[in-house]
Write a structure and sequence with these properties.
By secondary structure, this protein is an alpha+beta fold. 22% of the residues lie in helices and 38% in strands.
Length: 121
């Protein structure tokens, strides 16, 4: 499963995380996201809530992206389930295609699951 924007928040909630209302929402086509400043994706965002990082502590979830303006969580990946999400719109156009690789990761996850299911695993 690949959660995008609201799907990111729904995935977080379904895994037991909590959300909170941002004082100022993330709106626009130029929101920087990444784990740190070494690799930045310029993203399109339009949301007013974020996942509370303190609620992730007991969960088997890795943070894959932060909004680099305010360090809120912008991406998650479950450690054992084939699910991940981002709090932005990697499909947004026109604009940068920094996050296109996420769709490749999703297709690879589908193929892996299909192959493991076909082998009876």
């Amino acid at each position: 499963m690949f959660g995008i924007c609201l799907g990111h928040q729904l995935l977080g909630l379904s895994l037991g995380a909590e959300t909170f209302k941002l004082k100022f929402g993330h709106r626009g086509l130029n929101q920087p996201a990444g784990l740190d400043q070494s690799q930045v994706e310029i993203t399109s965002q339009n949301h007013g809530f974020a996942i509370d990082p303190d609620s992730l502590t007991p969960l088997a979830v890795d943070i894959t992206h932060f909004n680099l303006n305010d360090r809120t969580i912008a991406g998650l990946r479950h450690q054992s389930l084939p699910v991940f999400s981002v709090q932005y719109h990697p499909e947004a156009s026109p604009g940068p295609h920094d996050a296109d690789y996420l769709f490749g990761k999703f297709i690879d996850a589908i193929k892996t699951h299909r192959n493991s299911t076909a082998k009876g695993q």
